[in-house]
Amino acid sequence: SQQGEEDPQALSIQEGENATMNCSYKTSINNLQWYRQNSGRGLVHLILIRSNEREKHSGRLRVTLDTSKKSSSLLITASRAADTASYFCATEGRSSASKIIFGSGTRLSIRP
Amino acid sequence: DARVTQTPRHKVTEMGQEVTMRCQPILGHNTVFWYRQTMMQGLELLAYFRNRAPLDDSGMPKDRFSAEMPDATLATLKIQPSEPRDSAVYFCASGLAGQGVTQYFGPGTRLLVL
């Protein structure tokens, strides 16, 4: 069963704008991660946020976590053409010993 | 620059043939994952290992798929016999178990079963 579900499924914005993607999950987690996948490539880890954290930053990325709502968001500020990719959230459940479940992803397109 | 390597990168085979995919995890990583990605199903976890021992292979069709780690530097995924529905990209990822396993993905094996 799928743990994380991203929203929206696809997003197209103008270069320079901010992009926000959301992830909802179902069960209690140890942590939540965001990954990026460029077409035809493997996934690349972006950021990890633990269940006791509410917000985390890395460069132009900002991730929030609301465990009461079982949701997370990924914000990419000042988007660039190179940000065009699919973005996945992945959750590690409390009782699953490192088992990480990926969502279905958001396909982000940046228009020049 | 340490990377996960996978071979072959592409494989075209006929239905009924055996397929073996190999993965070399990053040296020192103790957790290895196998995923399958298709347009319809997305990214599915097939199996994963910790310290070479299988922890969970519930995502894998047992009758035709098998995953092993003969040693710490090699993980294999076999399909026998292969079927057209097995066509997908198979990813291997490795990580270090601890406070959250950050996974490092290989480039994938693109499998086409005719």
Explain what this protein looks like in three dimensions:
The complex is a heterodimer of chains A (112) and B (114). In chain A, the strands form two sheets. In chain A, strands 2, 4, 5, 9, 10 and 11 form a six-stranded mixed β-sheet that branches. In chain A, strands 1-3-8-7-6 form a five-stranded antiparallel β-sheet, with no helix packed on it. Chain A starts with a strand and ends with a strand. With 112 residues, chain A is an all-beta fold. The model of chain A has no long low-confidence stretch (mean pLDDT 91). The radius of gyration of chain A is 13 Å and the shape is globular. Chain A contains no helices and eleven strands. Helices cover 0% and strands 54% of the residues of chain B. The model of chain B has no long low-confidence stretch (mean pLDDT 93). Chain B is globular and about 40 Å long. Chain B is an all-beta fold and 114 residues long. The chains are: A mainly beta (112), B mainly beta (114).
Short description:
The complex is a heterodimer of chains A (112) and B (114). By secondary structure, chain A is an all-beta fold.
Approximately what portion of the residues of chain B adopt beta-strand conformation? over 45%
Helix content of chain B: under 10%
The most extensive interface between chains reads: A-B, 24 and 25 residues
Write down the overall geometry of chain B. globular
> What portion of the residues of chain A fall into strands of 2 or more residues?
over 45%
Q: How many strands in all of chain B?
A: 11
Number of strands of chain A: 11
Oligomer: heterodimer
Order of helices and strands of chain A: EEEEEEEEEEE
How many strands, which pairing sense, and closed or not: the largest β-sheet of chain A?
6 strands, mixed
Mean pLDDT of chain B: 93
Distance between the termini of chain B: 36 Å
Q: pLDDT below 50 for ≥5 consecutive residues: which ranges of chain A?
A: none
